[in-house]
Amino acid sequence: MKLENLNIIIADDHPLFRNALRQALTTTFGDTRWYEADCADALQQLLDAATDYDLVLLDLQMPGSHGYSTLIHLRAHYPELPVVVVSAHEDAATISRALHYGSAGFIPKSASMETLAEALHAVLYGDIWHPEGIELLEIDDNNHEQMANKLAELTPQQYKVLQMFAEGLLNKQIAYDLGVSEATIKAHATAIFRKLGVRNRTQAVIALQQLEMEKTDIS
């Protein structure tokens, strides 16, 4: 794979970081087209476009991400699209869980731009990259694993509705924002509850929150 004419998404809610990242990588990937998303919804809108993306650089904590949930969603619905987590949290637990959920690499935000370029080259050539000296942990958590598998079954629209549930929006508000009927939202809700194995919105949001970054992940 020749690294030219790439389409790369930077999904991070900090505009200064997105700008710095894009500028720093321009020298390495000079002919790359950069796309930016400041929340999970904006990321989904980019993915819904016809562009054939080569890579997503994902911040785990941008609005709407709910920890690892967006990573899990991306891997389920866009399995051919490499996702690299770029995070300020660089402990072994966070790195191990991100890789466990399908990230093609994990780059700390503290990494030098030389290291960042090296990591992206590795991932684009099909390797898995993580910082040296990190002892990866074995992830053995059946509850989280079961919920991750259930979340992966949601369609992009169902995942969007679940995110809006988590924001506390009413069915009427969600229907207006998405340009559909309330009956459609209720149908989505029924499907979400069934797939997640819950009975109502509150339980669905609690299920989603299981995939938030835990204190042990961000120490």
Automatic annotation (TrEMBL):
Domain of life: Bacteria
Keyword Phosphoprotein among record annotations: yes
Domain HTH luxR-type: 147-212
All residue ranges annotated as the Response regulatory domain in the record: 7-124
Keyword Acyltransferase: no
4-aspartylphosphate modifications at: 59
Keywords: DNA-binding, Phosphoprotein
PANTHER family reported for this sequence: HTH-TYPE TRANSCRIPTIONAL REGULATOR YHJB-RELATED (PTHR45566:SF1)
Entry protein name: Response regulator transcription factor
Species of provenance: Shewanella corallii
